[in-house]
Structure formats: structure tokens, C-alpha cells
Write a structure and sequence with these properties.
28-stranded mixed β-sheet, 494 residues, 6 helices, 59% strand, mainly beta
Length: 494
């Protein structure tokens, strides 16, 4: 904000003392333009602009401003436009700033909260402090009456986000009471953390003996087309936040993440957060959901339904480890286009030379399925599959295991049931060893290691367990003795 030259100052009184007290009474004229009459006093306890009058031809604006430790006084009357500002300053942060109207506002900054205001004010392109950053108030229209301030409309630009705000702010005996509607195009959780956590640092506690600042209470209804959180984009987010001095209770009325509907509530009390949400999908398309949730590592088509319930309570930094939940997923009539675990398993079985049949190669073809059923749990950052089953015309895959999302590791065991006669599946019949007689061939495998590049090996029949064997038999409607487990005999290979 560089003033235009030549700068003419006519001081009736100017005082600058070593203890920090400064006072000025006089007129300032920049480049022969508008005349500014100013009476201002500053000391370590307060700052007061007792009168600031800007006269530019037939345009006139008058401002009175006082801010102290426990009191704010503000009044404006007249009109101030960018053309006047440009005559005073050689450069200015905005290009279309304007203020017009008449308003008086008086507010206490400590408890008990008292607000007294009257008048109406309109304006555009004003910079406002927002946490540790700034936001551009592109336009606003406010009206004051008694102890409340009515925001008829306000359009705010901050970072990459735009918001429209309307509602009321009032001073009650102890708190500031809000009743606001906020609509935005997009919002990023990390931007909010950066503002209100001061770059990740904890807020400093109030000084001993200092008067506590007024807290807020009331209701804020928030809607945004996109909300970015923890690497995921929530779309069509609608939430109602009940704000009180003890914390915030946010009810998620609607949200969609990766095609999944989310409803529930998030409570923030001090540094502790409680989450209780339901996730649901019904007859939805699976492909965009798998691509979104796995960051394109998996791509599976089909129609699916999902029901999940998630709970967590703890301090914010430790909240992911406190997560608990259950989920059930069913899918129908689709294809595995990309799936590191299944692809690695099929590649391993094809490379052993133990089988007459060729398993699908996902590098060159898809793996069609009739149904997918998954039942599991979430424990902290661990995704646990208690029962996994994939049914296709010739192959049935069942399994159990866990995925460590923090370390990006997988540890599971599976059973590939081939729906063909034994002698059409296994290349060396004399090498078979089984724990269960029958004609259905079950190939036990273990999948471990990195989630994106897992390692596959045969699983000993003794480590399979009846629970894993029963999954495909139950799905296929076969008796317990219908499966023969494949046991490799390394000494019989060429």
C-alpha cells in the first residue's frame, strides 16, 4: 500500500513517545487528490481512530474505530470507492473495493458478551483475516439491529474455495450466537488444519489472569460440492453443526465418497473426536468405487451393494488407530480387470507347471465372475476379511486375511476351487496327497508382502482349516467330502 507522491501532511498535533504512545491530529493529501482528515491515538492498551474523513469531490466517507483489550467500537457512513482509493495509493491489494451505507457497532470482546448495532452496510473486495491467513470478501450486505447482525449475503474467496454465507450473529450473555448457512464449491481439510492449527502447532494457552475470549454457540448448516479429507473426495456434502462452548457436534445429513453414501455424526470435544457413521451403497457401479478406494490399484466392474458401520473415539492424531467397524459387500456379474492379489495368485499357479488348466492372466485378459461376497471388520488401520468368496463359471476363490493399511502389507490365505474333474486339473495324479477325499480340486495358497506386489506360495493342507474349506462348499452347495486338496510333490516334477 504505497501512497502516491507528493505527500502533504498538515499536522495540528503529532506526538510520538518512547513508551509507545502515538497521537496524530491533522490532514493528509496524496498527489493533490482526496483529503484525509485524521484524529488517531495508539498506546499499548488500545488503538483509536476518533475520526477519519475522506473527501473526494462529492464523495465523502467517515470512519470511527476503537479496539481495546475488551471492547470494539466501529462506525462507517458515506461511500468509498476504488477510484478514490487509487488516487491515494499507487498500489492496493484489490481492484474493485467499495463501501457504502451507514452502520454503528459496539461489542465487548470478553464475557459477558454484549453487542449493540444498527444500520446497514454494503461492500465488495475487502481483505479479511481468517485464522492465520486472509480471505477476500468479494461482496457483502449486512444489516444490524439491536444485539444482532444479519448477514443478508456474503461471498467469500479463500485459497481455492468460494463460499456464500447468510444468517445471523448475535451476542448473548456469555457467548456469540451463530445461525448461519454456508454453501461452498470445494473445501480441503488440510487447509482448515493449516489455518486453525497455525501450521500444525498447538494453540498457546491463554495467559494466567487474562480475560477469556468469547466463545461461540449456535448452528451452522454447511453444504459443499466437494470436501477433500485424508486423500478422499466427499461430494454433495451436507452437514449441520451444533456449536457450543464445549465443542462441536456435526451431523452428516448427506455425503458421497467413492460412490458410497455416508451418514452419521462427528463430535469434537476439546482434542477428542468421536465418529459414528454408516456407509451404504445399493445396486451401484463397482468399477469407479474400486478405482477410487484403491487409488487405481484395483479395477473391478459389476453391480454391488455395501453396508458398513464405523466407530472411533480418541485424540485426533490417534483417531485412525481407534477405528472399529464391520462391513458386508456383495457384487454381481462383473470382471476383475486389475487386482494385484488375484493376478499374482494366477501367475504363480501358471508358473508352477502343476496344472493342466490355464488360469486367467490379468495382463492380457479379464477374469469374469458371477458373484463376490465379502464380510469383514476394521480394527484401527487393519482391514480384516473374515470371509471372502468369488464365484465364476469355472473357478471359485475363497479366502481370509488382513490388510495393514498403515504399512501397505497383506497377509492372507486362500483356496482356489477348480470346478473340473481332478484328472483335467492336476498334471501328475500320483503326486496328490489329500486330507479330504472327493473330486472337487482345492488349491490352498498364501498371499503375503506388499499390497501392490504380493508374494504367493502354496499353503500346507494342515494350515487350511475347516472354516476356509467350508466357504466354497457352502456357496456351491456341495457336501463336506466333495473337495480334494492339492498337495504338491516337488520330487515328481521334471
Amino acid at each position: 500500500m504505497k501512497l502516491r507522491s507528493p505527500l502533504k501532511i498538515a499536522a495540528e498535533q503529532l506526538a510520538w513517545r518512547a513508551d509507545g504512545n502515538i497521537s496524530f491530529n491533522g490532514q493528509v493529501t496524496a498527489a493533490g487528490g482526496p483529503q484525509l482528515s485524521l484524529v488517531a491515538v495508539k498506546n499499548p492498551q488500545w488503538l483509536g481512530v476518533q475520526n477519519l474523513t475522506i473527501q473526494d469531490g462529492d464523495r465523502r466517507a467517515r470512519v470511527i474505530f476503537l479496539v481495546a483489550k475488551d471492547q470494539l467500537e466501529f462506525s462507517f457512513s458515506g461511500a468509498l470507492v476504488q477510484q478514490t482509493i487509487d488516487k491515494v495509493f499507487a498500489s492496493f491489494p484489490t481492484k474493485d473495493s467499495a463501501l457504502s451505507g451507514e452502520i454503528q457497532l459496539s461489542a465487548s470482546l470478553t464475557r459477558p458478551v454484549r453487542v449493540s448495532a444498527r444500520g446497514r452496510l454494503e461492500g465488495s473486495d475487502l481483505w479479511l483475516p481468517l485464522g492465520t491467513e486472509k480471505a477476500l470478501l468479494e461482496s457483502f450486505d449486512i444489516e444490524a439491529s439491536g444485539d444482532s447482525l444479519s448477514v443478508r449475503s456474503a461471498d467469500l474467496l479463500w485459497s481455492k474455495s468460494r463460499f456464500a454465507v447468510s444468517g445471523k450473529v448475535a451476542g448473548t450473555r456469555e457467548n456469540l450466537r451463530l445461525d448461519l448457512d454456508v454453501t461452498g464449491d470445494q473445501l480441503d481439510w488440510e487447509d482448515l488444519r493449516r489455518i486453525f492449527d497455525r501450521g500444525g502447532k498447538q494453540r498457546q494457552p491463554e495467559k494466567i489472569g487474562a480475560e477469556p475470549s468469547p466463545t461461540m454457540e449456535g448452528t451452522m448448516r454447511f453444504r459443499t460440492k466437494r470436501f477433500a479429507f485424508a486423500g478422499f473426495d466427499f461430494t454433495a456434502l451436507e452437514t449441520t453443526a451444533a456449536i457450543s462452548p464445549s465443542g462441536i457436534r456435526a451431523k452428516i445429513d448427506q455425503a458421497i465418497v467413492c460412490g458410497i453414501n455416508v451418514m452419521g455424526h462427528v463430535d469434537v470435544i476439546g482434542n477428542e473426536i468421536e465418529v459414528d457413521v454408516d456407509l451404504a451403497a445399493r445396486s451401484a457401479q463397482l468399477e469407479p468405487t474400486t478405482v477410487c478406494l484403491t487409488n487405481r490399484q484395483n479395477q473391478v466392474t459389476g453391480s454391488y451393494s455395501l453396508a458398513a458401520h464405523l466407530l472411533a473415539r480418541g485424540e485426533r492424531d490417534h483417531l485412525p488407530r481407534a477405528l472399529q467397524g464391520t462391513f458386508e459387500l456383495t457384487a454381481r456379474n462383473g470382471e476383475f480387470i486389475r487386482s494385484p492379489g488375484i493376478d499374482a495368485t494366477f501367475d504363480y499357479l501358471n508358473a508352477t507347471g502343476d496344472f493342466e488348466t490355464a488360469f486367467p492372466d490379468l495382463d492380457r485378459q479379464t477374469f469374469p465372475y458371477r458373484s463376490v461376497e465379502v464380510k469383514g471388520r476394521i480394527e484401527g488401520k487393519m482391514l480384516i476379511g473374515d470371509e471372502i468368496n468369488v464365484s465364476s463359471p469355472l473357478i471359485n476363490l475363497s479366502g481370509q486375511g488382513r490388510v495393514d493399511l498403515e504399512r501397505n502389507q497383506v497377509d492372507g490365505k486362500g483356496l482356489i476351487a477348480v470346478l473340473k474333474p481332478v484328472d483335467e486339473v492336476i498334471r501328475r495324479i500320483p503326486g496328490i496327497r489329500s486330507i479330504i477325499g472327493g473330486s472337487l480340486v482345492g488349491i490352498p495358497v498364501r498371499v503375503t508382502g506388499e499390497l501392490e506386489h504380493p508374494e504367493v506360495s502354496y499353503l500346507s493342507p494342515a494350515d487350511v482349516g475347516a472354516e476356509l474349506i467350508n466357504i466354497p462348499l457352502r456357496i456351491l452347495g456341495m457336501p463336506i467330502g466333495a473337495m480334494r486338496l492339492f498337495t504338491p510333490r516337488r520330487d515328481l516334477r521334471d
